[in-house]
Every structure is written in C-alpha cells, then in structure tokens.
Inverse folding.
RNA sequence: UGAGGUGUCGCCAAGUGGCUAAGGCAUCGGACUUUGAAUCCGACAUUCGUAGGUUCGAAUCCUACCACCUCAGCCA
C-alpha cells in the first residue's frame, strides 16, 4: 500500500475543523452529514463528499449522519434511497443509528415557518411563477416587491394554513421569506420557502401538499441534527447568506457552519445526475450499474474496490479551485490496490492454437503456478499442460519488428511457469491468416528455466486446449471519446462524444481453476489487466469484466 | 456588465513574509524481472494569472488589471 494512505489528509476544511476544536467552538464536537437527494444513483463525485464527511467525523472523533434531502416528491423514489444506502455502506461510511430524512422535519419546519410569518418575516405570495421571475429583477437590476408582500400576519397565517390543507391548486401560491428584493445576491430577493405540490411523497405519502425548498429545509435540518460543519459544493456559496439568514431568524437549537468545496470532475466522464440519468433512460448504457458508468454501482460491478475509491479520494485532495482530475489517477488507485490483493490467473482473449509436435499426444501434466509472484502466501493452483495449447494471437508475429520479445518463426519464448517453446511453422487458411502454430518445446525447461541457464526475453501466457473453459470477456473503454465530453459542436450535446467502442465483448478462454468463481471475484489476468466476475455469469459459462488494463510500456518500433 | 468565488509543473495539490517552491498522477531515462506488470533508482516549476508597489527578504502583504467558475427554478 502506498504511504499516502497512512498520511493524515490535510486540506482547508480540516484546517477549519482544527481551529474550531482549539477554540472549543462546538464544545469540541464534530458532526458531519452526507445529504443526498434520492433522485438518482451515487457516483464517484459523491464518494469524494462521503469520504470527506465521514473521514472528518472519524479523524476527529465525531459523528456522521446519512440524511436524505427528500423535499421534492416529484423527483424522488424509494429505489434511490435503497441504492444510496447500499452504496454509502459499501464505501465504508457508517451512520450508525442516524439514518435521517429531511421529511422527518416537515412538522418542525412548518412551525418555524409560521413563526417567521408571525414575526413579519415571511408572506404568502399569489404571484405566478412567471410573475415572480419578472419581479425578481436581473443580475444587474434590483427586483420589485410583490404586491402581496405586505399582507397582514393574520391573512398570511390563514392562507398558509389553507395551503397546507390543500385548498389551493399547485403553483397558485407560495410562501416567501421577506428579506430584500434589492439585494445584490439574488438568493436574498424574497426566496420561496414553500410551494404547493399535490404529490405523493415516498415517505410521508399524502400527508403534505406543501413542500419546503432546499434553502429553507437544509440549514434547519443541519441545526436540528446538531451538524457542526455542513459541507457542500461550490455552487452553494451564493446561498450561504440565505442559509445563515434562516438560522438567525428562527430560534434554532444550534448554529451549523456551511463550507463549500469544489466538486469532482473527471476526464472522459460526465458526473451530473441529469446526464447520467439520460445515459440510462436513453439506453446508451445498460442501467445505473453498467460497468462503464461512473456510478458507485457501476464501478463496483466493473471491479473497483471501495478501498481504491477511498485512496483515490485522498489522492485528489479537497480544495476550492474548480479542477478536472485525469482518469489516470482513478486507474492508478485501482491498479495499486489490486496489484497487491488480486490473485493472478491466465486468460486468452483471442486464442491461437499451438501444437507442440515433440510433446507426447495424450499426455497431461499438472503445472503448479504461483497465485502471486511477490506473495507466496497466496498459494498455488494447478493448470494442465498438454500437446495442444492456446496462446494469445497478439503474442505471435510472422514478421516481427526487432524489439518484439514474443513468438515468431524460429524464436523461442517461455510459456509462463511451464516450458520454453520454439516456433517451427505455421498453418494458414485460404485467406493467408495464421490459424495454427507448430512448435517444439524443450523438455529440460520445465518450470521455466533450463540447466544451461539460457535466457529468453519473452514470457507469454497459455492455456490447454482441452481443459480451458470458454468465457465471455467484456472489455471496456471510456464511455466518451473526448477528455471533456462537453466539448461539442453547434447543436450537439455530450452524446455526440459517446464512444461507440466503449464495450467490446470477446469470447476467450480461462483456466479451469477460476471458471466457477463467484460473482465479484477479482483476478489479474497476467499481462492483460484486472478482471472481475460479473453477476451475469452462469455455471460453466463465466463472464468477466475488465476493470482496467495493466500499464503497458511496450511501444512498437517507429 | 450586480454579487460571490478561484487562479502554484501536462493533471491534482501543499505552501498563511525568511533554508535550494512538498507530495501524488502522468511523462521520459536506466536497473531488475518466469507478467514488456510490479519493484527500484534518476530526470521533471530560477518560478507561483499579469503588471506595479511595500520589505533586507513575497507564491505568501498592498494596488491595478486579466482569465475562468457560480447565481435571475415554485430543482437540489
């Protein structure tokens, strides 16, 4: 494991927390939360936030809440809360007994809203959505007061209660905070606190027909839960004054502090819920857990470990500058983890048959192969060796360039942990394609060394023809062809950059020893990459997902 | 162009006035190698958006400018 994992993360948020601790700001408490809206699956960007929030709680002896920000019943579903819980848990964040929902606070929020009305700080507005927009002004011009802004407290109270009772149709009225229509910060121009929505909520059912807006619900929920550091992304910076206004104008039990950090952006991928939603709904991928998706579910199915995701999150850091992390960083994290933990195996993706002419027909030797070259404690396994074997088509060239270390006519290579092999001839089909190789082996090279100590430059992988097992192997490439999928021409959107070759399905062969491995098992297929058994596997017909290729420093001669 | 933010190596990112501007990823050399993997060694910002200023001394302080991001949902 790399040493960065043992380093204590250091960033501006941890600096703030440390200061608060030394000044005893929250009586030494640290309490964070992860507040997803259950309207989609979690992705790698959420993992950054979860890792930050949970990491903070763990490092400073604090607590971490999982709170669903479920204030918009028209977009939220139980399926999403289930998947989010599973993903947060898989990532290793523990909310203990604090599984919470903003909808649990609807009653309290309602009471606080009536308090604001009584205090002359909120009013019911009859303007339409369109009118409200017009009255709001623009970025450079102040807004105008709504004609309903100065209703009496009694009328406001009555109207608000009737809104709650469901007497008015959707969109007919809203409750607004009375702040300042001329504020240079548009969020403060009498923001909407409640809208009427005759919709069934996934938890509260039809109990409510008014629902609080994010700005109103979020800070108050933080206050109720005793959150000390309410961490969100940069786009909420402009909302912070409003977050604070709501806390200052009702009698809250606690004052949380909102801190914003830059959300994750990754090359060759999109990380907006709306785009991910489209990829799923429009069939560009096969569901939220498609291994090409940057969702937690997709990464998991692809073969990523939560440990790798965690170490990636630590490697990228936390800051306020917008930035785009190279995909190579994520790939490094999973290679780094799997290099240590994944047992090695051999698989041939594109088989080329080899007949070893001096090997006795009918003879089978059980070769003993190490499961990990650097970790003998990972044990060994048996792979049968016989007269007919498969090698990778790529590992043979009829006319190789001089730096090609693999098999070619007259050249000798080592079959991984088996024998030295020399190519003596080729069999071609009518099209001139090589369909079979004729070779000889050196009986004195068993295990991969010879008494004369001669060197071979190349070692290739192999599989016995009879005992190897056919497998479906899914080779993934990036879902987009450009580092920035949003880099499109006029009238195009990100789908124009979808990579038509992001999934290549291949019928290859694997060792008998791994043919029935359970879904989720991870291996390094030697010289090729890390692979993971997919849940689509059937007994005797395994399906493997390529998690990531191995690094490859081989460069064909110019 | 109102307000709020951000600008340190190809990509992340430390650095909060004083040794030669951390570290990771990537890249490029070389060693080792029964994975062209891993591992190991080495190279990789006289310069911190730009221009001025303060100071014995500035990426760090001041001034001006430039670039980029966010905000005009009854989304979050």
């Amino acid at each position: 494991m790399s040493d960065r994992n043992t380093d204590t993360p250091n960033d501006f948020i941890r600096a703030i927390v440390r200061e608060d601790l030394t000044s005893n700001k929250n009586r030494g408490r640290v309490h964070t939360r992860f507040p997803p809206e259950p309207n989609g699956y979690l992705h790698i960007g959420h993992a950054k936030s979860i890792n930050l929030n949970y990491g903070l709680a763990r490092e400073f002896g604090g607590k971490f809440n999982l709170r669903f920000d479920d204030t918009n019943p028209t977009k939220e579903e139980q399926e999403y809360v289930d998947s989010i819980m599973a993903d947060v848990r898989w990532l290793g964040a523990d909310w203990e007994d604090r599984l919470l929902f903003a909808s649990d606070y609807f009653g309290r929020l309602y009471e606080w809203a009536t308090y604001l009305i009584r205090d002359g700080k909120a009013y019911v507005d009859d303007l339409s959505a369109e009118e409200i927009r017009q009255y709001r002004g623009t970025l450079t011009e102040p807004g105008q007061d709504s004609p309903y802004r100065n209703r009496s407290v009694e009328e406001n109270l009555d109207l608000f209660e009737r809104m709650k009772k469901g007497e008015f149709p959707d969109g007919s009225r809203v409750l607004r905070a009375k702040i300042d229509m001329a504020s240079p910060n548009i969020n403060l121009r009498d923001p909407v606190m409640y809208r009427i929505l005759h919709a069934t909520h996934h938890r509260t059912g039809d109990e409510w027909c008014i629902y609080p807006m994010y700005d109103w619900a979020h800070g108050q929920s933080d206050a109720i839960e005793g959150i000390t550091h309410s961490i969100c992304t940069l786009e909420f910076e402009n909302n912070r004054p409003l977050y604070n206004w709501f806390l200052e104008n009702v009698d809250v039990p606690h004052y949380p502090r909102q801190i914003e950090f830059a959300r994750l952006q990754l090359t060759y991928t999109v990380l907006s819920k709306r785009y991910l939603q489209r990829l799923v709904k429009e069939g560009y991928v096969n569901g939220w857990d498609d291994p090409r998706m940057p969702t937690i579910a997709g990464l998991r199915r692809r073969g990523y470990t939560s440990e790798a995701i965690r170490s990636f999150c630590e490697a990228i850091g936390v800051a306020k500058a917008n930035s785009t992390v190279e995909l190579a960083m994520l790939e490094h994290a999973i290679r780094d983890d799997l290099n240590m933990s994944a047992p090695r195996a051999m698989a041939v993706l594109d088989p080329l048959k080899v007949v070893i002419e001096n090997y006795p027909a009918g003879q089978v030797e059980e070769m003993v192969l190490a499961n990990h070259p650097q970790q003998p404690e990972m044990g060994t396994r048996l792979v049968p060796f016989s007269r007919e074997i498969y090698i990778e088509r790529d590992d043979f060239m009829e006319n190789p360039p001089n730096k090609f270390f693999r098999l070619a006519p007259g050249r000798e290579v080592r079959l991984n942990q088996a024998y030295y092999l020399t190519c003596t001839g080729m069999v071609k089909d009518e099209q001139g394609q090589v369909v079979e190789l004729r070779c000889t082996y050196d009986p004195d090279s068993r295990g991969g060394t010879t008494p004369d100590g001669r060197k071979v430059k190349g070692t290739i992988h192999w599989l016995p023809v009879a005992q190897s097992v056919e497998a479906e192997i899914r080779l993934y490439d990036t879902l987009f062809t450009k580092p920035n999928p949003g880099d499109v021409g006029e009238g195009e959107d990100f789908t124009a950059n979808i990579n038509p070759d992001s999934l290549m399905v291949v019928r290859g062969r694997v060792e008998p020893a791994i043919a029935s491995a359970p879904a989720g098992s991870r291996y390094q297929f030697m010289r090729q990459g890390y692979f993971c058994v997919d849940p689509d596997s059937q007994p005797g017909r395994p399906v493997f997902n390529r998690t990531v290729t191995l690094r490859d420093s081989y460069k064909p001669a110019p």
